[in-house]
Design brief:
The complex is a heterodimer.
Chain A: H1 38-53, E1 60-64, E2 79-82, H2 88-98, E3 103-109, H3 110-114, H4 118-127, E4 132-137, E5 140-141, E6 147-148, H5 172-178, E7 183-188, H6 192-204, E8 209-214, H7 226-229, H8 231-237, E9 238-241, E10 248-249, E11 255-260, E12 263-267, H9 290-297, E13 306-313, H10 319-333, H11 339-343, E14 348-351
Parallel strand pairs in A: 1-2, 1-3, 3-4, 4-8, 7-8, 9-13
Antiparallel strand pairs in A: 5-6, 7-13, 10-11, 11-12
Helix pairs in contact in A: 1-6
Chain B: E1 6-9, E2 12-20, H1 25-38, E3 42-48, E4 63-71, E5 82-87, H2 90-96, E6 100-109, H3 115-120, H4 128-132, E7 139-142, H5 144-151, H6 159-163, H7 166-177, H8 182-192, H9 197-217, E8 223-226, E9 235-241, H10 242-257, E10 261-265, H11 272-280, E11 287-290, H12 294-306, E12 310-315, H13 317-333, E13 337-343, H14 360-365, E14 375-377, H15 383-398, E15 401-407, H16 408-412, E16 414-418, E17 465-467, H17 482-497, E18 507-508, E19 515-520, H18 524-536, E20 541-546, E21 548-550, H19 556-560, E22 565-570, H20 575-583, E23 590-593, H21 602-613
Parallel strand pairs in B: 1-8, 2-5, 5-6, 6-7, 10-11, 10-12, 12-13, 13-15, 14-15, 19-20, 19-22, 22-23
Antiparallel strand pairs in B: 2-4, 3-4, 3-16, 9-16, 14-21, 18-20
Classes of the chains: A alpha/beta, B alpha/beta.
């Protein structure tokens, strides 16, 4: 409803309701996650982001499936449902269609969102339902105590793969783009300011907004995102992408991303005859997702950094709006608007 | 040419139109039933589709039938066997003759009985009538194709379009035989083809040609017949199929409750027409989503309910299996939801276009945990409207998912529907949380009926989270406390048990019947007709038909124990009987079970019941 992106304090005035919200207004209960779990960090950021976004708690709906991260709605002072495994996106779709005024957030882990709920994930993206789809990715099943997930790397050893997995993982961005997703952002649970920034952008984007949150499971998959989990790691191994800005990274912004053939390469502007002009400028609004996908798929190999930030943010018609528009159009065109009138559209005979 | 033809009065007649899937038999049958209903006849129809996507033309598996039963008095079924069989080709005669009464009139298009046609239909000789043992005197054999071509020679239509009008020739002939007013058929065609007046005109010419052919030759029929309506129930009527009536019931209920109607669905035979129907009515604000799967159909409807819509999901048996987990979520969330199951033959893909009542126990029990859910079954195409309305009312007022069972037979069949007055339908009042509870309210607080209060997102001060995990009965917070789970299980069960449902009405010889026939759902008409046949023979027979299967009517045990013999007749292997045995102490009925994908046969029911319960015990 209202997105006041540039106002920085953690509380803003909602222009429609005249309410002032703080993070406290969105908080409820005592989270039961393990100490140190990435979910704690994310939850705090979500409370703050929602306060800054300024949509009232009663106009906000948080829908989750099953898994550690799916406990999240219980810690929200909004409307919410903690449902069944995998179906959060489908349920959230129904919520949004029944009441498009609501700000609807769907929270899932990597198992909930991409394994059992993979079908709903891709179709919510394809339809472009105006949902904020949070994917808390710790590459493990935590609640069932340590099995590999569809984002665990090949060879991953877990309780259900004692000799290592023999399958390739999903890369969430690839799945999102393959489903014609229009918004994809990535952040790290421990990086609160950045998480808040990304969540606000996800809310501002009309349509399905996927936010992959890299999150650590201290018990079953500790260190899975270690390269980028703390500030020092991110300074070295991550790139914060921002629309319209050069793709520079490194502790002293000494590296840049440049195009090479059909791919990307890391250059050091000023070295080997390269200049700052060779560094790509990020275009999150570009309809063609080719380079955005290249950014999203970068891992910590061959000197490539992990991309954080809003990688893709392209405007497109949303499903819920299109549904409402079609209803309005047909309403204007068809002469019947209630049940009694509907009956009259049939071939009727009278028995006297 | 036209000699005077004798007009005889008949009480009822059954006509079966049959031909290749592409021959337009459904349309011909529809027009005939509408024409008949317009003059006040009671009608009942039954389309019999092949399961093949498109079987080779002229093949045995590609035959499609449409049976119409019209009566001067109330009729309950599309009829067992037909008085007139229209067979548009050799394959139709081969496969459909078994649905004809001995001595039935057979109308065939001789142009479709050539050497190749006979071979495709697996006739061995050119004497197809002889092979089937059909008396040629009962056959009206006419070269329909040739006559249709002649009739439309000047129309400028191409050959393919001309051949599509053959069905209208047969219809014209039948209209002559039963003294029907063609102007009603013409009106029907003019409305159906409003945008293609040339097609409407061509069809009318062919109907007239068929009618005139009958009138001028009346070669094999000595009489024409008249079915005069005797007891009319005045009112305005329309022809409606069960699926359309179901869709209308949901629309009516949503309007009455002042809620948006949301349907989440996935195409599945024979339920898809409900999705088709509801997706047409955007001008009523109906939201339909053809979801990515059955699960999403149910899940999104739950989401819609949470947000304050009447959430409905429609499916058939295999889809019901897939929805089970989400249905259970609605049980524990205590949200309104209607799950429509248009039953078909199972298991798995089974007989997708045929009818069974085999999902009853799945509806009652097919979920994990203690998962009580009201179950209703519609008894006829027109009753689907009232059953759908009732299911929605029950779901909304008692905050529970409700399963509405129909079946392929009632879903595809049609009947004359007396237009209902929504103002006179029962009010629908969901238990919205009263404003004065603000600050004190928790999500699992209940009203006197045990229904959880409904707080819709958007309402300030009632923010809450509900979950598939067990909650504390007072705070609504997650609770795994043993006593609390016991209590919540009991509360959910009692809530459903306490839903008021009307008492069973005993039909027939309620006071002194020797035999009580018991059924549910789509077999109502056949069981009623069987009872009528037996009573006409002087036997004392009563029947009860269950619309409410969970909870059962309060007088169930009393009624079932009252009669010396009870037979539970159903199209499964004994599911209602099992349920009643479980719910009524000491109840031990006889059973009549059939799973052939076809409706019951009234004559066979009457004969079997007579043999089992009356022969040798003449009373």
């Amino acid at each position: 409803m209202t997105h006041l992106g540039n106002i920085t304090p953690s509380s803003v005035l909602d222009d429609q309701q005249g309410h002032l919200f703080t993070a406290q207004d969105f908080k409820k209960g005592q989270p039961r996650w393990c100490p140190g779990c990435g979910d704690h960090f994310f939850l705090a950021s979500l409370h703050k982001a929602m306060a800054e976004i300024g949509v009232a708690p009663w106009q906000t709906c948080v829908i989750s499936g099953i898994g550690c991260s799916s406990r999240l709605p219980h810690y929200m002072a909004t409307y919410g449902m903690n449902t069944i495994h995998g179906r959060a996106a489908a349920i959230a779709t129904g919520v949004k269609l029944a009441n498009p005024e609501l700000s609807v957030w769907q929270v899932s882990g990597d198992g909930d969102g991409l394994a059992i709920g993979g079908n709903h994930f891709i179709h919510a993206n394809r339809r472009n339902v105006n949902l904020n789809m949070i994917l808390l990715n710790n590459r493990i099943y935590g609640l069932t105590k340590g099995q590999y997930s569809p984002t665990s790397p090949r060879g991953f050893v877990s309780k259900s793969s004692p000799y290592g997995t023999v399958e390739d993982p999903f890369r969430p961005a690839e799945l999102c783009f393959g489903a014609r997703g229009h918004f994809f952002a990535r952040t790290v649970a421990t990086d609160s300011p950045h998480t808040i920034e990304v969540l606000k952008a996800a809310h501002a984007h009309k349509g399905a907004s996927v936010v992959e949150v890299l999150q650590n499971c201290v018990i079953f998959n500790d260190g899975t995102h270690s390269m980028v989990y703390d500030k020092a790691g991110r300074a070295k191994n991550a790139i914060y992408v921002r629309h319209g800005e050069k793709l520079l990274f490194g502790e002293h912004m000494e590296y840049g991303l440049a195009q090479q053939g059909f791919g990307l390469k890391v250059i050091q502007p000023g070295v080997d005859g390269t200049t700052l002009d060779d560094v790509l400028v990020h275009d999150a609004h570009c309809e063609d997702d080719t380079l955005q996908l290249k950014l999203a798929l970068m891992g910590n190999n061959d000197g490539f950094p992990v991309a954080l930030g809003i990688i893709r943010d392209v405007e497109a018609p949303t499903y819920d709006e299109a549904v409402q528009n079609q209803i309005s159009e047909v309403y204007a065109k068809k002469p019947y608007h209630n049940f009694a009138q509907l009956l009259e559209t049939n071939d009727i005979w009278e028995v006297k | 040419m036209s000699e005077k033809v004798t007009v005889k009065d008949l009480d009822q007649v059954v006509i079966r139109f049959s031909g290749d899937s592409g021959d337009g038999m459904q349309l011909a049958g529809n027009i005939f039933s509408t024409v008949s209903a317009t003059v006040g006849n009671s009608i009942s129809t039954f389309p019999d589709y092949p399961a093949d996507i498109r079987a080779p033309q002229g093949s045995l598996t590609g035959v499609s039938g449409f049976q119409v039963h019209i009566g001067a008095e109330q009729i309950y079924t599309p009829g067992d066997l037909c008085d007139v069989l229209v067979a548009m080709n050799a394959a139709a005669l081969k496969t459909q003759y078994r649905f004809a009464k001995p001595g039935a009139t057979i109308i065939i298009d001789t142009d479709a009985f050539g050497e190749k046609d006979l071979k495709k239909a697996e006739f061995k000789t050119a004497d197809y009538l002889g092979e089937m043992g059909i008396d040629p005197d009962r056959v009206i054999a006419c070269a329909m194709t040739t006559m249709v071509k002649n009739c439309l020679a000047e129309s400028g239509m191409d050959n393919k379009s001309i051949l599509k009008c053959r069905n209208m020739f047969a219809l014209g002939l039948v209209c002559w035989l039963y003294d029907r007013d063609l102007s009603i058929a013409f009106n029907f065609l003019e409305e159906k083809f409003a945008r293609k007046p040339a097609i409407a005109k061509a069809n009318e010419m062919v109907i007239q040609a068929g009618y005139d052919y009958g009138h001028n030759t009346h070669s094999s029929a000595a009489n024409v017949y008249r079915i005069e309506t005797k007891h009319k129930r005045p009112g305005r009527y329309m022809d409606i199929t069960g699926n359309k009536a179901t869709a209308y019931g949901f629309i009516a209920a949503a309007e009455k409750a002042g809620l948006k109607l949301y349907l989440g669905s996935y195409p599945i035979t024979p339920a898809t027409d409900v999705l088709h129907e509801l997706s047409k009515h955007k001008s009523l604000g109906v939201t339909t989503v053809q979801c990515e799967d059955e699960i999403a159909g149910c899940a999104s409807a739950i989401g819609a309910s949470f947000a304050g819509a009447l959430g409905v999901t429609s499916t058939s048996g295999p889809g019901l299996c897939l929805k089970s987990e989400a249905m259970n979520l609605a049980v524990i969330l205590e949200l309104p939801l209607v799950i429509l199951d248009v039953q078909r033959g199972g298991p798995a893909t089974g007989l997708p276009t045929k009818s069974e009542q085999t999902d009853l126990l799945q509806a009652l029990f097919g979920r994990n945990g203690e998962s009580p859910m009201p179950v209703l079954a519609a008894s006829s195409p027109t009753d689907c409207f009232y059953a759908a309305y009732e299911a929605a009312r029950m779901a909304l007022e008692h905050m529970t998912p409700v399963i509405l069972l129909t079946d392929a037979y009632v879903a595809n069949g049609s009947g004359a529907f007396r237009l209902p007055d929504l103002a006179k339908m029962p009010a629908i009042c969901p238990p919205y949380v009263p404003e004065e509870l603000k600050g004190k309210w928790t999500p699992y607080m209940r009203n006197e009926e045990g229904a959880r209060y409904w707080a819709l997102p958007g309402r300030e001060g009632f923010e809450h989270v509900i979950a598939g995990i067990e909650k504390d009965s007072t705070t609504g917070a997650i609770s795994t406390d043993p006593e609390n789970h016991q209590m919540m299980t009991d509360l959910r069960r009692q809530k459903v048990e306490r839903i008021p449902v009307p008492d069973l009405e005993v039909l027939g010889d309620a006071d002194n019947a020797e035999l009580l026939i018991v059924g549910f759902g789509g077999t109502y008409g056949h069981l009623h007709a069987a009872m009528d046949v037996m009573r006409a023979e002087g036997k004392k027979v009563a029947m009860v038909h269950f619309r409410h299967i969970n909870p059962l009517p309060a007088n169930t045990a009393e009624v079932l124990r009252k009669y010396p013999h009870v037979v539970v007749a159903e199209q499964n292997t004994g599911q209602l009987a099992a349920w009643l045995r479980m719910k009524v102490d000491g109840f031990s009925p006889s059973q009549y079970n059939e799973v052939k994908g076809q409706p019951f046969n009234v004559a066979k029911l009457a004969e079997t019941f007579t043999r089992l319960f009356f022969i040798g015990s003449e009373k």
